[in-house]
Amino acid sequence: MSHSKTKIWIHAVFSTKNRQPLIRKSVRDLLYQHIRQQIVDCGCFTDCINGVEDHVHILFLLNPQVAVSDVVKQIKGSSSHEINRLNLIPEKFAWQTGYGAFSVSESQVERVRQYIVNQQQHHQKMTFTEEYRRFMKQYGFLVDDEGEVGNRFNGFGRWERPGHETHGSNRGLVLTCRYHQPTV
């Protein structure tokens, strides 16, 4: 194949700091427009953005030259700066540390799109915490009753259980999955 071809759909989710209900209806359109522009500036394509007062969901195509973490860092940093610069809400706006980013197969794009578009209806039945726990379980993360992630990657090719972690600091929420040793 003479050219590289990629099509990597990402469903990103992140919340306001301490899950405060800061994303009021009066600022949503401007916030989503700003997020969309940041994604475009990263060379990615935005399919849809939606959320409720305390978190945002985004479905976008990832530019293969950019890391997911860089896209999310740009979105979160720039959007919080813009909301505060324009004094759109009386409180200081900030995003929670960390995020969730999940790959989406082409066959599931429409399903995820509808899930994002229908966030307001969805959250009449389920809290963000319940949604978070469901996502963690759906994507193979080990979650306890309090919603805490059960395993962490130690940086040396192994997943470790809590209480058996390697030395070093863990800042923010660490989202990890079970490690499956490939069979030969």
Order of helices and strands: EHEEHEHHHEE
**Helicity range:** 25-40%
Domain module count: 2
E-strand count: 6
Strand order of the largest sheet: 2-3-1-4
Measure the end-to-end span.
28 Å
Low-pLDDT segments, ≥5 res: 151-184
What is the fourth-level CATH superfamily of the largest domain? Transposase IS200-like
**Any idea of the CATH topology of the largest domain?**
Alpha-Beta Plaits
Radius of gyration: 17 Å
Calculate the mean pLDDT score and round it: 80
Class from helix and strand fractions: alpha+beta
Gross morphology: globular
Q: Tell me about the biggest sheet?
A: 4 strands, antiparallel
Measured by DSSP, the beta-strand proportion falls in 15-25%
CATH class of the largest domain: Alpha Beta
Please work out how many helical segments DSSP would assign: 5
